[in-house]
Amino acid sequence: MNLNQFFQIFYKEFGGSDTIPEYFTKLVDCFIRLPSNNEERALEAKDEFNPVQKTPTAIYTWINKSGKAARNMNPKIAKAIYDLGDIDKFKDHFEKVATHQQCEKVRDGLRKFHFDATDDNCFDVSGKLLSKIFEFRARRKNDVKPRDIEEYPFVQDSDIVFLQEVGNKCPLCSRKLITTKNGKKLPQYRIVSIYPRVVESKDADKFNAIKKAPKDKGADENMIPLCLNCANAYDIAPTVDDYEKLAKIKEQALNTYKLDQNLQNTSLEQQIADVVKKISQLNDEDVQGNKAEMNPVAVKEKIPNSLMLQLKVTNMVQLFYNIINRQLVHLSEASGLDLDIVVQQFSIAYKKISKYRNTREEQFQSMVTWLQQGLNLSDSYKTACEFVVAFFVQNCEVFEKVETSK
User: How many alpha carbons lie under 13 Å from residue 159 in its C-beta half-sphere?
Assistant: First the structure.
């Protein structure tokens, strides 16, 4: 944002009947501190303390109604203003005189240039921005970007759950929500209401058709983090398509949390870890010598709509069914593993997962994750866990048959 663009926001909302030079002088008056010594007080008495007090003609060349500047402010004048800058004075003045509607207009004006402004902080952001604009002009630079006024706040502990729900990526543009600078994690996001704070009456039915507005729009269930650009755009002009996308992502995240809570109470016989580890150590000779010639019809009936998963599970069953079965029998005889209990555990886990995961792919991967985490195994054992889950698909504890029309 440059000086002219900044000025347009404030002149439109607070300029009244003032001419451009008159209002620009008032704006600078709001920004510069009070005189602090006899020399400055003498300048104030002669109306010369404000560096633009006697330059109305020049102001017209810096600022105009078209939004384009004919030329830039003289760097010496910009430095003189910057040296007298008082951001708190600027902020306090506008917070006293602005109506709620004017706050919103200033907020929206800043957001159009991707500055992270809210109703509460819009004049604080404006003061920092104006100060940086004068600083840049003193160095013969023009446009100030959001990153130029960032203070690098820390990621709040209360935000971590929200960030985990979206995998630290903006749900709308996939930009990372946390960056690292000088070894510090810096937030590049704002948490927004999924059902927008304000919805045009003509659009309310469309939004409610996807998901009705919650009683409390500030509840955690209605909050999601977006990158600063998307957050500003969504607050200003939310679309039905974006709302639908965000609502689905949040629903999936809440389902994942509920599923995790449910599965915490589903125990798993730890001897199964021996089976997983045994599988991960097998070589090609071990597998080929124990390949089972099995009828894949049961798998096809359970996974009729996903050919890739169907082929994957069928292949796993044919390669490893005999090996896993033999290992389970061995553990039953050697360590007293109760196979009925194991069967029950897999069956219960699947029933819980199927309440929150609709597709076979999601259900299969959730079973694998449950098995891996329940046995406290590293990612190096993930594939072996897939073979064990495939065994229980064939064994009927995972997936029920799907009736298909002939």
Answer: 19
| pLDDT band, very low/low/confident/very high, at 406 (cuts 50, 70, 90) | very low
Handedness of CA 336, 380, 313, 398 (dihedral sign): positive
DSSP H helices in 237-306: 240-263, 272-280, 284-288, 297-302
Beta-bridge mates of residue 184: 181
Q: How far apart (Å, rounded) are the C-alpha atoms in residues 282 and 316?
A: 14
Asked if residue 392 lies in contact with residue 398, where contact means CB atoms within 8 angstroms, the answer is yes
DSSP state for residue 144 in the 8-state scheme:
P
* 323 contacts 390 by C-beta, under 8 angstroms: no
CA distance 54 to 74: 14
Distances (CA, A) of 280 to 276, 277, 316, 332: 6, 5, 13, 20
Q: How far apart are CA 365 and CA 259, in angstroms?
A: 13
pLDDT band at 224 (very low <50, low <70, confident <90, very high): very high
Token look-up 């894949």 returns 296
Instruction: Using DSSP, state whether 405 is helix, strand or coil.
Output: coil
Higher pLDDT, 225 or 336: 225
- Tokens for 148? 């130029």
Q: Are 323 and 286 in contact (CB under 8 A)?
A: yes
Dist CA 344 CA 143 (whole Å): 65
pLDDT bin (cut points 50, 70, 90) of residue 187 is: confident
Q: How far apart are CA 234 and CA 250, in angstroms?
A: 16
DSSP code at position 71: S
Pick the closest to residue 222 from 263, 264, 194 (CA basis): 194
Would you call 199 exposed, middle or buried from its count of C-beta atoms within 10 A (0-12, 13-18, 19+)? Answer: middle
Are 384 and 280 in contact by the 8 Å Cβ rule? The answer is: yes
Q: Is the pLDDT of residue 298 over 90?
A: no
Query: What are the tens digits of pLDDT across the range 76-101?
Result: 999 999 988 899 899 999 999 999 99
Within 35-179, residue ranges assigned H as helices are 38-45, 56-62, 75-83, 87-97, 100-111, 122-138, 160-165
Whole-number Å distance between alpha carbons of 258 and 276: 27
Say what the pTM is: 0.49
